[in-house]
Amino acid sequence: MRKEALLRRGGALIRSWGRGLAEILYPEGAVCLGCGRLSDGECLCPACREELRYSDVLDSWQLRDIGGVPVWCMRPHRDLPRKLVLRLKHGTEARAAKAMAGMLRDRPDYFLHPAPGTVVTWVPGPKGRIRERCIDHGKRLAEAVAAELGLECRPLLIRKKNDRAQARLNREARRENLKKTFAPAERIGCPVLLVDDVLTTGTTARRCLEALREGGAEEIEVLTVTKAAG
Ligand SMILES: [Zn+2]
């Protein structure tokens, strides 16, 4: 009996190694990012592609507003879009960025038409996190969106070091300290499209918008893949 149990465990182990190996050995697009089944050369299998396409009946393509800046959100933060966001962020799956940007292809007419010359940029992540995960997911997503829209992509924001420990500051000083997380990377004279994965409270976006304006940006739009409830 013990031998059988061991064999079963061994089998499961080999299968899990097999799945891992398949992702390494097979060319890009062999394994679906959404469901893990074999795909047809695209990073999402036909069934998952269909799911992404038809989810637009479920309150997708939302337009929000942060201080007068239009914020375009492609999908609610659930199901497959949420899974893709997590795979890019935590699963270091760069292919997910392409799949998400691909959703722009069948956007409705009213949805996001950036002015010519618009530069796509992203929210710079903390350096430690980028090192740890070996992927700058914000940058990957912005690059994929820029490629999809035929626009230039470049870093317009820098994340400043927060050396002052938040805990030691009073409320007012804490707010001031947080305000200065981002700074413009250059003098900005072009329209800007700030891309992020998910819109939650909008606090980060708000801080980035302040920094972009400080750099001189006048025309700004924001695009996020998903919009969290609330
Ligand atoms: Zn699939």
Can you tell me the CATH class? Answer: Alpha Beta
Q: Note the total helix count.
A: 8
Oligomer: single chain
Name the bound molecules.
zinc ion
Written overview of the protein:
This protein has 230 residues and is of the alpha/beta class. The chain has helices spanning 2-25, 46-54, 79-89, 95-101, 127-133, 137-149, 171-179, 203-214; strands at residues 62-66, 69-76, 119-122, 152-153, 157-159, 182-184, 192-199, 220-227. The strands form 2 sheets. The chain has a 6-stranded mixed β-sheet with strand order 1-2-8-7-3-4, with helices on both faces. Strand 1 and strand 2 (69-76) form a beta hairpin. The radius of gyration is 20 Å and the shape is globular. The model has no long low-confidence stretch (mean pLDDT 84). Residues 32, 34-35, 37, 44-45, 47-48 line the site of zinc ion.
Quick structural overview:
By secondary structure, this protein is of the alpha/beta class.
Main features:
230 residues; alpha/beta; Rossmann fold; 6-stranded mixed beta sheet; two-stranded antiparallel ribbon; binds zinc ion
Write the layout of secondary structure elements.
Blueprint: H1 2-25, H2 46-54, E1 62-66, E2 69-76, H3 79-89, H4 95-101, E3 119-122, H5 127-133, H6 137-149, E4 152-153, E5 157-159, H7 171-179, E6 182-184, E7 192-199, H8 203-214, E8 220-227
Parallel strand pairs: 2-8, 3-4, 3-7, 7-8
Antiparallel strand pairs: 1-2, 5-6
Helix pairs in contact: 3-4, 4-6
Bound molecules: zinc ion (ZN).
